[in-house]
Amino acid sequence: MVAGIQDRRASSRWWRGAAVIAVSGALVLSGCTKNEDTTGPTKETTAAKAAKVDDIANTVPEDIKSSGKLIVGVNVPYTPNEFKDSSGKIIGFDVDLMNAIASTLGLTAEYREADFSKIIPSITGGTFNVGMSSFTDTKERENTVDFVTYFSAGSLWAKPKGSDVDPSNACGKKVAVQSTTVQETDELPAKSKACTDAGKPAITIVKFDGQDQATNAVILGQADAMSADSPVTLYAIKQSNGKLEQAGQIFDSAPYGWPVAKGSPLAASLQKALEHLIETGDYKTIASNWGVEAGMIDKPVINGATS
């Protein structure tokens, strides 16, 4: 898993951390993560079955339209965006949203698994029509593909409900993280150094191999808070049965986007479809089902990288 995480982060300021959360019942610590999660929503969000909109569907490139399929390259797991349930079906926020996009375009999404690093080359090579794996839209990647933005992700803290933890002033606190994430390598060391430079106690960084363990450490009182990518934290809060709450706001945000071939008119089709789902409220319904509504955007753009 670590090697995969490093591959995913190599070309982006914002690192996609592969974390599978298993938070339910007594929320006991587990020894390893799996490529599945049966604790969250296990059925497709109703809004994912969107109706076809002819005016938008007619903008789809003819070769894709005639096939009736939208070939989507995906890499799992990344709970809650894309992961497998106990039956092996790929589910998640990204999946429900892409299904709704495809339906709006009069297409059926066909998901094909691939290594994360091979998805963009497979798009430029014509194997996939679009990528869907929580890609951060970056200036570097825009040199190779075009992106349609659909979400905003950053870092976000969670704390035990009712506790007093401030992410901007956490000196002396114990903060749980998944090892090798940007929170462990960059964010917390910088915040801890600011504490010690000011003559205050350092932040104790409590590292775990899996995000499920980091989450459970907070619930079990072994850490004062946790820091992770915002979709991961939001989903952990949703699955904690009221034991966790958000601490502070999302920071260092950057857009997630769907990569398509450079210059492809499919980008405009995806953008129009998402604008439609935002207007109908289906976008919000899907995001709320997975507990990630804090990352919703108001207007999708083509190539909206900030760095």
Automatic annotation (TrEMBL):
It is found in: Cell envelope. Residues 69-294 form the Solute-binding protein family 3/N-terminal domain. SUPFAM superfamilies: Periplasmic binding protein-like II. It comes from the Bacteria. Pfam families: SBP_bac_3. Keywords: Signal. GO terms for cellular component: cell envelope. PANTHER family: ARGININE-BINDING EXTRACELLULAR PROTEIN ARTP, MEMBRANE-BOUND LYTIC MUREIN TRANSGLYCOSYLASE F. Belongs to the bacterial solute-binding protein 3 family. This is ABC transporter substrate-binding protein. The lineage of its organism: Bacteria, Bacillati, Actinomycetota, Actinomycetes, Mycobacteriales.
